[in-house]
Amino acid sequence: MAHTGQRSEDWSRPGRHRGKHGKPKPHPKTAKPKTTKPKTAKTNSRTRHRTRSQTARRALRKEVPSTVALLADERDFAAMRHYASFAFDDHGVYLRQMEGLLKALAAKGVHTTVALFDPVAYEEFCADTRLDPDTPASRTRYTAELAAAGGTVIYEGQPIDRLVPRLIGVADEQATWEYATALLSRAGHRGECRDDTTARAAFDRAGAALRKVVEAAGPGVHHLVCSVPADGTSLVAVLHADAREAGPPKLPEPSGLVFRTVLACGFALRSPGGLVLRTIVADAPETVRGWALHDGWLRPLSEAEVFTAYCTDAETGEPIPPEHGVEYRAGIPLGSPE
Question: Composition bias, kind Basic and acidic residues: at what positions (predicted)?
C-alpha cells in the first residue's frame, strides 16, 4: 500500500476513544464546532465612531472658506494650456466645470469667493517665490495670495455669465486702486524726503468733496464717474450711491475707497481731471452734472460745458447726439474745501 505521508487514526483500537479521566473522547464527526462570539457590538462601535468623525469633518468644512481663481478670458485660458498639469483644453467646458464646482461648494454651505486668475502675474509670482509654475500646488498658492490681496467676488449662486463680467470689473477696480495709491504715495516724495501729509490731506479732501457732491445732488440713485489723466494714462473710477432713503447716502466699499483714491490722486498731482454725476429719480428725467478738478478742488461746469463734454466723441472730437430723456445741468457749487 502506498503511504500518503498522513497518519491515520484507528478509532476501533482500545483506548483511542477515551479521553482524560476515562471520559469518552468525542468522535470527530460528532464533535461540536467551535463557536466565536459575535463582533456586532465592536463593529457597531467602530461604525458609530467613523460616522461621528465624518460628521465632524463635514461641520468643520463649513467653517473653512474657499477661494476659486477663474480664467475668465480666452486668451488667458490659452496661455495656461502650455502647462502639462493644466487639465483643460476647451474654455467653454472649463467654465461649465467651474460653475459646477461653485454650486457644489455652495450646496455644502461653504463660503466661497472668486478671483481673477492672471497668467502673467502668476508667472511673475512663481519666479519671485521660486515655485514651479507647472503644478496645481503652485496655482493653489497663487490663488491664496489673490484672496489675501482682495479684489474678489462673493459667490452667491449667480450664473457664470453674470459672474465673469463682475469679476473683470472688480479686478480692474483693484488694479486702478493699486496704481492710484502708488501715484498718490509718489506725490508725497520731494527729493529724498517723504511728506505723508500731502497724500493724506489730498485723500481727506477727496472724501469731503465726494460727500458734498452726493449731498448737493439730493435724493435718488447717483452714478458717479471720476477721470484723472496721470503718468501717461487715465485713471477712471466709478461709484454708485443710493440716497433714496433718509440719512446719509450709502457709499459701497471698496468702490468708495477706489473713487476717493483716484480723486485724491487728481488733487495731489493738480491734474486736469473731471467728475460727472448722473442722477436717477422716480417719475423724473435723468440729470447729468459735471465738475472739473481745479486747484485741488471741484469747479462746477456750466450747462453748456456739461452738454459739450457729454455730446462730443473723446477720440474724434465729432459731435454725438444727446441722450433721449436726459437733462444736462450745470454743476452745483460746493463751497470751499474743508
Answer: 1-13
